[in-house]
Write a structure and sequence with these properties.
single chain; alpha+beta; 2 domains; seven-stranded mixed beta barrel
Length: about 290
C-alpha cells in the first residue's frame, strides 16, 4: 500500500564534525561545511489526519530507518533531474504531555537533509530561508491500514464494516497505517493538509490498480473454494458440506488447486464422463448426429 503524506520544513542547521561525517558517508567526495546547506524536515507524525489515517509510533520507528538516504524531489515526480536534497539522519521526537486522539503522546519523525550550495540551488535555498518552500510530502509503503474499531484491514470490506471518520459508540474510526515496508522519497509540495504540519495525503493511481487486482484475486479465491466444496460433495467422500467449507477456508490457492484437481478425478471416476444420450446402435457415423434431431 503506497502512501503520500505532507509534512513541514524545519529550521536550517549548523554543521559540526559529526553531522558532516554523516553527510560524507553518503557522498562520493569529502564535502566541506561551506559546500553544503542543511535543514530539518518534519516528515510525519502519529496524529489522525484529515483523511482519517495516522502513523502509530511503531510505524514511525520503522520509517525512521527507511528514510535515511532518501532523496527530496518536487511534487512526487520521480525523476533524477528533480533530486534536490537527501536525508542523512532521522530522529523520533516525542512531546510528552501532548496526547493525540489515539491516546499516545505526540510523536513525529524528523529528518535532517543536506543539499549542495551550487549556483543552480541558490534560488531554492533562498526560498527555504524565506519560508516559501516549507511544506513537504512523504511517499512510503505500508502493509495495511488497520481499523481503529475492529483491528481488521479497513480496505477489506468483507472483514471490516467501518468507515473512516464515522463514530461508533462514541469512538471515531480511523485507519492506523502499520508495518512500513519501504520509504520512496519526500517532496516539496504546494498545499498543506495535516493538522500540525499542514499536510495533504494523496494515493497514487497505481495503488488503486493494486486494490482492484487484489479484489479480483479475492473473488477468484472464493470461487475456487466454492468449487472445491461442490466437487467434494459430488466425490461422495462422506464429508458434510460445512466440513468441506471449513477445510477449504483454511487453504491457500496452490492447495485449493491441488484439492480441486483431486476431487475432479474422483468425480470423473465415480460418475464417468459419458454423454447423457447415446446414439442407437447400427447407425453409420454420418447418421449419429441426426439421431438427436427433432
Amino acid at each position: 500500500m503506497k502512501i503520500s503524506k505532507q509534512a513541514g520544513l524545519g529550521e536550517a542547521l549548523t554543521l559540526d564534525e559529526n553531522e558532516l561525517a554523516l553527510i560524507n558517508a553518503m557522498s562520493r567526495k569529502a564535502l566541506t561545511a561551506e559546500e553544503v546547506y542543511t535543514f530539518a524536515v518534519r516528515l510525519c507524525d502519529n496524529q489522525v489526519d484529515r483523511d482519517g489515517e495516522r502513523f502509530p509510533v511503531e510505524t514511525l520507528e520503522e520509517l525512521a530507518e527507511l528514510f535515511v538516504g532518501k532523496s527530496g524531489i518536487f511534487d512526487h515526480q520521480w525523476s533524477a533531474r528533480g533530486q534536490t536534497a537527501r536525508i542523512y539522519r532521522t530522529e523520533l521526537v516525542r512531546e510528552e504531555g501532548s496526547p493525540t486522539e489515539a491516546g499516545e503522546p505526540l510523536c513525529y519523525l524528523k529528518g535532517y537533509a543536506y543539499m549542495l550550495r551550487t549556483e543552480g540551488n541558490q534560488e531554492l535555498i533562498a526560498e527555504i530561508e524565506g519560508g516559501i518552500k516549507k511544506e513537504v510530502s512523504v511517499g512510503c509503503a505500508v502493509a495495511q491500514a488497520r481499523c481503529s474499531i475492529c483491528g481488521e484491514n479497513i480496505r477489506d470490506k468483507g472483514r471490516c464494516p467501518h468507515e473512516q471518520g464515522m463514530t461508533y459508540d462514541g469512538k471515531r474510526c480511523w485507519a492506523d497505517l502499520v508495518e512500513a515496508t519501504d520509504a520512496y522519497e519526500w517532496s516539496f509540495v504546494a498545499v498543506p493538509a495535516q493538522k500540525e504540519a499542514g499536510v495533504m495525503k494523496s494515493m497514487r493511481q497505481d495503488m488503486e490498480q493494486l486494490e482492484r487486482e487484489a479484489a479480483l484475486g479475492r473473488k477468484y479465491l472464493q470461487r475456487l473454494k466454492d468449487e472445491v466444496v461442490r466437487l467434494g460433495g459430488l466425490a461422495e467422500l462422506g464429508l458434510e458440506r460445512d466440513t468441506l467449507a471449513v477445510i477449504a477456508g483454511r487453504l491457500e490457492e496452490p492447495e485449493l488447486e491441488g484439492l480441486r484437481a483431486a476431487f475432479q478425478r474422483q468425480v470423473d471416476k465415480a460418475w464417468g464422463a459419458e454423454t447423457q444420450l447415446k446414439a442407437p446402435e447400427g447407425l453409420a457415423p454420418e447418421q449419429r448426429d441426426g439421431a438427436f434431431l427433432i
